Amino acid sequence: MDAENRTTAAVVEAPTKVEELTGSTSRTYKFIKRAFDIVASAVGLVVASPVLLVTIIAIVFEDGASPFFFQPRIGKDCKPFRMVKLRSMRPDAEQILAQLSAEEKEEFSKNFKLKNDPRITKVGHFIRKTSIDELPQLWNVLRGDMSIVGPRPPLLVEEKAYGEHLAKVMSVRPGITGYWQVHGRSETDFSERIELNEYYIDNRSTWLDLKILFATVGVVFGGKGAV
Q: Tens digits of per-residue pLDDT, 115-150?
């Protein structure tokens, strides 16, 4: 079983009441956001279907393994859900992770990422740089697990690293893109990621969501901060 498909029975619980941390947002904003999510994800899945099909064929052709993987992530109100992505890592990614050098393991323990990750496939590098690997998450958005814009859903192993910040960051639906992604992405460290996500929680609005969406286009086509 590779690292991306690894599952866990861990139960994630919110350490505090999120209402005390974030206050409330208007019903109008919540309605507009969810309506946009439904329409955008449905249309997006149809429009992106040719890209998805070509990418699926490329992934299977490279190593013959499944093009999809489902990964447990922390969602709204700190409840776990299964996030779907296009597979960008090798089938033996878990074994490769165990064989990392001491320096690489230290890097991974700090940010849960590697700048030069040996687990990523040739196709994986391209679909990560262009964010094509994220397209299947439109299904998560349509289901209501995620939103188009919001904090990225943490891995279950990141729960302790978030500490008391987790309840605030996950008081909303996690997003495909967000404030962190357009302000550095892999170029930021873990503490900066939390700060950027908390800024979004404190200032979220329809206008900010639109600004993030437009900025995401530039990040995707520029490849800045992609991993």
A: 777 788 999 989 988 889 999 999 999 999 999 999
CB count within 10 Å of CB 220 equals 18
- Say how far apart CA 85 and CA 64 lie, in whole Å: 17
The string of DSSP letters for 134-166 reads: GTTHHHHHHHTS-EEESPPPPBGGGHHHHGGGH
Contact 142, 165 (CB under 8 A): no
Provide the 10 A C-beta neighbour count for residue 55. Answer: 21
What global pTM score does this model have?
Answer: 0.79
How many CB atoms within 10 Å of residue 172?
A: 24
pLDDT tens, position by position, 25-75:
688 999 999 999 999 999 999 999 999 999 999 999 998 899 998 999 999
